[in-house]
Amino acid sequence: MTEPEREPRHRLFFALWPDDATRGRIVDATARQVRAAAGRTTPRENLHVTLAFLGGVRESRLAPLADAAGQIASLSFDLVLDRIEYWRRQRILSLGPSALPPALDELVAKLQQALGACDFALESRPFRAHLTLARDARAPRDVARDLEPIIWRVTDLALIESITAPQGSRYTCLQSWPLVPANPG
Predict the structure, then answer these.
(1) Looking at the 3D structure of the chain, how many domains does it have?
(2) Which residue in 104, 122, 102 sits closest to 113, CA to CA?
(3) Which of 16, 112, 134, 160 can pair with 49 through a Cys bridge, CB separation 3.0 to 4.6 Å?
(4) CATH of the domain at 16
(5) Do the Cβ atoms of 135 and 39 come closer than 8 Å?
């Protein structure tokens, strides 16, 4: 077995990682819909928007990964979460924006470019901004798909590690990089 094969791997992804107050607003605003879907509720501390899933990354690749993320200059933005969707095939209840802010599209494009330049393989499916609220959910009946908008001021890009345990996955923010403050007005 060669050295890189024995090297520890970390299951990683880049994400938008909400602060505790934003997480609280999300949980409060969607509690009725999540209960109605009767699935496995995403733990409050795991709520996030995945930007790029990397999978198992060798430990020696962590520094180049962090360097690449540190080179991304993208504006901070407001993400308006106002749409609940049920994904029938995946049996997921999700929360997302009805419209993507241009700064989020730009951040995803810059992140994909930076990761590609470092030879990180990315998923080929198009980016779809969402927070998974529940898995193994059933289609909620008579539950409004639109809700009072939750405005989340996104100010950084985060590198998250997923650690699988018998009681479920636990996500930990390994590092974050600030986005460039947008000029007000």
Answers:
(1) 1
(2) 122
(3) 16
(4) 3.90.1140.10
(5) yes
Q: Per the domain annotation, does 52 fall within a domain? A: yes
Please, which pLDDT band fits residue 1 given cuts at 50, 70 and 90?
very low
The structure's pTM equals: 0.90
Instruction: Give the span between the Cα atoms of 121 and 117, in whole angstroms.
Output: 10
Task: Give the whole-angstrom CA distance, residue 172 versus residue 144.
Answer: 32
How many residues are given for the chain? 185
Taking a C-beta distance cutoff of 8 angstroms, is the pair 90, 136 a contact? no
Residue 22 CB coordination number (10 Å): 19
| pLDDT tens-place string over residues 17-33 | 999 999 999 999 999 89
Please report which residue ranges of 16-124 form alpha helices under DSSP H. 20-37, 62-70, 102-117
Q: Are strands 156-165 and 168-178 parallel, antiparallel or unpaired?
A: antiparallel
Q: Is residue 183 part of a domain?
A: no
| Sign, Cα dihedral of 26, 51, 174, 114 | negative
| DSSP state at residue 65 | H
